[in-house]
Amino acid sequence: MKALVYHGPRDLKYEEIPTPVPKKGEVLVKVRAVSICGSDLSGYKGGSAMRIAPLVMGHEFSGEIAALGEGVSGMKPGDRVGVVTNLYCGKCQDCKDGLQNVCDNRYIIGTTMKAGGYNGAMADYVIAPAEKIMSLPGHVSFNECALVEPLSISLRATKHLGDIKGKTAAVFGSGPIGLMAIMCLKSFGVSKIIAIDVLDNRLAMAKQCGATDGVNSNGDVPAEVRKLTGGLGVDIVFDAAGVPATVNTGIEIVRNGGTMMLVGMASPKMEIEYKHAVVKELKLLTSYMYTTEMREGLQMIADGKLDVKRMITSVLPMSDGPRIFEELAGGKSNEIKVVLTND
Ligand SMILES: [Zn+2]
Ligand SMILES: [Zn+2]
């Protein structure tokens, strides 16, 4: 089969590799859509311990069942499916406590984890355990299904916020995770959502996704947010960027007693206005990955509650992978979500 194989920093080749054979309890999925994640890009640039070469990336995907391994029932070749890509151990204390998202023994399809590497879906075919298969309702497209994994990250973070009906929020970063967060916040009843980003085309997309206002971060963000909230600040800051400027501006624009949801991790280490956060009695929350949220997110799409496909800016053949990765890595692209297909 053909696959996009990551060989090292900025070295991705579309080449022939052996087609995997499903073992007991596994299925072979013919990939129909796989979207490029920001984490794939940082892996491509060589900055990620979660992408060790050689590796076929791709953890946001959908396809059709091509073959069943021994003992697999309840599905058949040709079935349209999505795949829950977090393969946790189910035995450790974290898993037993419902924290399968942070299981130390987990594999994530298309990445390298402590447990090892697991080839992903930037290929003609990918292997998945049968229990991770989600059947795809007929009216949900392959492209939409490929966006369920990033959606699940924003969905979990939004669920952590509790009852947020009628509240106000600011979202830093209008990339896929921030845009999905805007959709989730809106769907959970947040009445005012201020998108904050440095790119105007992303702010325009944020409004299409449900943001009530867009603020360019080149301007005076605290002043703009004060103006939009009657001087009070927002109840919730959702940080999908995670750099010192967003965290610290967030601490400034969130109201006293408000909540910061920290999801972005662009800066692994930073200095924050810690005292300011304490004396405002802020709730500092974090969220990582997902547990049950992929299945829940797919259901929300199937029910018409979220329109994730609007953030797909390009659909390209898999063979275009090396070119588009290099273009996206250049940092000057206007793309928001790029989906690769095998059609
Ligand atoms: Zn991702
Ligand atoms: Zn575990």
Q: Which ligands are bound?
A: zinc ion
By secondary-structure content and strand pairing, the structural class works out as alpha/beta
How far apart are the first and last residues' alpha carbons, in Å? Answer: 14 Å
How many separate domains make up the residues?
2
At the fourth level of CATH, the homologous superfamily of the largest domain is Medium-chain alcohol dehydrogenases, catalytic domain
CATH architecture of the largest domain: Alpha-Beta Complex
Low-pLDDT runs of 5+ residues are none
Which of globular, elongated, flat, extended, rod-shaped describes the shape? globular
Can you put this structure into words, describing what you see?
With 343 residues, this protein is an alpha/beta fold. It has 2 domains: 2-146 and 307-341, Alpha-Beta Complex (Quinone Oxidoreductase, Chain A, domain 1); 152-286, NAD(P)-binding Rossmann-like Domain (Rossmann fold), CATH 3.40.50.720. Helix content is 27%, strand content 29%. Strands 3, 5, 6, 11, 12, 19 and 20 form a 7-stranded mixed sheet that branches. It has a 6-stranded parallel sheet with strand order 15-14-13-16-17-18, sandwiched between helices. Helix 9 (274-279) links the parallel strand 17 and strand 18 (283-286). Helix 4 crosses helix 10. 45% of the residues are buried. The protein binds zinc ion (2 copies).
In short:
By secondary structure, the protein is of the alpha/beta class. The chain has helices spanning 38-44, 93-96, 142-146, 148-160, 176-187, 200-208, 221-228, 244-253, 274-279, 293-302, 321-329; strands at residues 2-8, 11-16, 26-35, 55-56, 61-68, 80-83, 86-87, 107-108, 111-113, 116-118, 125-129, 133-135, 168-172, 192-197, 213-216, 234-239, 254-262, 283-286, 312-317, 337-341. It binds zinc ion (2 copies).
